Structure formats: structure tokens, C-alpha cells
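seq:
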Amino acid sequence: MESGDTILNSVQLSIVSPDCHERGAVCFKAGERVELIDPMAKQPELIKEIETLLAADGRVDTALSVVFFKDRLAYKLKREIKTGFVDYSTLRKRKAMCEREFLINKKNSPDLYIAVAAVCRGRDGALKLWGGKGPLPGVPVEYLVEMNRFREKDLLSNLARAGSLDSAISDVLIERVAAMHAAAPRVPAGNYDKKFRKAVDISIRQFRESAAGVLPPDAWRDVSAKLLRAFERCAPVLKKRGKSNIKDCHGDLHLGNVCLYGGRPRVFDAVEFNPEFTHIDTFYDLAFLLMDYHHHRMPRQAERAADKYLAAAGLDRADFAALMPLYMGLRAVIRSSISAAGSKCVRGEPQRRLRAEAVRYHGEALEYLE
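struct:
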């Protein structure tokens, strides 16, 4: 994939469920080239050994990672894969990505992220866990991001579903997001408006592929026409924003990547593996969160969050009002694609739920883009 092609978090199209509801399911979208690094499939056996070593009491699998749970801790392992947008093909690269994930997310939520741990093979052949201090107890065979564990019900996405996400929690979150964006370094934009148009085209193509057989045959035409019209309206503002508002952002900022920990919202799981997903307009980063509020039928919270963000960041509404229909519409299109693609990898009730989500996100996208 060429530079600039992967802006917009199209990476999420490779994960079966946005919030990892389908435990143990791994699914890549149609047409995605996935290179199986080791034909002898050694890592799956190593993963089993690591699960035994940790005496894990829980586990979540996604397309890119495996997360083990043990008591109050969580350990995140990166799968040995290589695709068009992520390369975890060697132990060295997985170590580097674990270190980068730790450093990026430690800044946002220091009480969640503990260390980069190593799983080592001792001289006796047994695995040993190294927590980052002292000499290594053997040869490293895998690396893990070590985190404090939080309760699944404390994900803000789950609080929203339960009707427990109140304005006090939301206000603290938005203040944190504004502070994150203020502290984030600016990055070279390089014709941001043209890159964004290219990304819109890619998202339309991905939506057409993913929606086939799930949404009405002409659904992609409506999405395409409205996205392109919205882009044309926003092109001058995108060009202006590209001069000073493209920063190294979170890249995956939705309610499923925020949890309550210690009584306060903590943002986690920022994208570490590809800067094309994170070097974006701060408003586009925020748009995912605002779209998620709307999707959870919390429009007043979304409006309040927008007001709080603009006030905290010292920004006016002109550019925000101009871009949000495009930004939120595109986020909803991508979310619809994720759900549609995921529905093709499961059966029964999970499939029905994901298909319903795809339909709903599609409808929301069209509303934003009107």
C-alpha cells in the first residue's frame, strides 16, 4: 500500500468485531493479502505455552493480537503476521512495536501500562517471564505489553449500552482528549486534502467489497455520491487544516478504547504499527468518539462533548461545523464496512447482530452526509 493510502483507520476492516465481542474469532476482509510468516506455524504452539506459563484465567483473540488475563494483570502479544498495513513478521519487529505501543499509551494512561515483558526460554527449555528488571532469564522468544487489568463492564462502550455513561465521566474524558491533542506533536501534512480524497476513494471501494451480500446492492452508490459531494464541499477547509492541525493522534478513539480505571476514564490502545493511521487531523480523531456517542443514542452527550472540546482547546466552531459531517460520515462508513465484513466470518446470532450493525451504521453515515 502506498504512503497516504491507509489514512482513516481502514485497518479496522481486518478485525471481526469493533469491540472484540466475538471471542476467539480472527477474520480478514475479502481481498486482504495476509502473509503467513512461518509455514511450520510455530507461534500458535508458543502461544499455548505462554498461556500455560501465565496460568491465564482468560483470553481474547483478535486479528492482530492475543490478550491473556491473569488476576489483576493483562498481557498483550502480537501475532506473527504481515499484511498491507502491519508488519509483525519478526521477533525484532514485534519487540519494537510492543515498545512503541507501551511508550505511546503510557503517556495517555500511565496507571494502565506497566512494562514491556519478555518471554524467555531458559537453558532447561522451560519458559520464564521477565518483567523488565534485572538480567534476562534466558533467550527471548516473544514480547508482551503488560497492563493492569480492568473490568470489561468498565469499558465506556459497555457503560453506554447499559445507560451508565453520564456527563461527569464524559466531561473528564473530553478534557483528557483535548489535552492529548494539545500535547501531540505536529507532523508534516503534505497535501492533506489530496491524501484525504484518496482515502475517501479507498473507503468507498472497501465499503463496496464489504457490503456486498449484506446491504442493498445500491448502498455503495449512495455512500459514494454523498461522500464525494461532502469532500468537495470540505476541500478548502481540509487544505487549510492541513497547514497546522495534522498531529500524531490516537487513531482509534472510540468508546471501546476507553475504560474506567481508578474511577476515571483512561484512553488506551492507540495505534502503534502504522503512522498513516495516526497522522491525522485532530478533528478527525475526535470525530470517531462523537460518532460513537451518536451510535449509542446519546446525541446530547455528543453535543456536550463537542462544546467541551472546543472550549478546552480554545477553538471556534467554523472549521468544526464544516468538517464534522464528512468526518463522522466517513467514520460511520468504515464502521459499517467493519461490521459487514465481520458478519461474513461468523454464523447465527453473531452474524445477525453484525449485519444489523452494518445496516445501522450505513443509515447513520447517510444522515451525517446529508
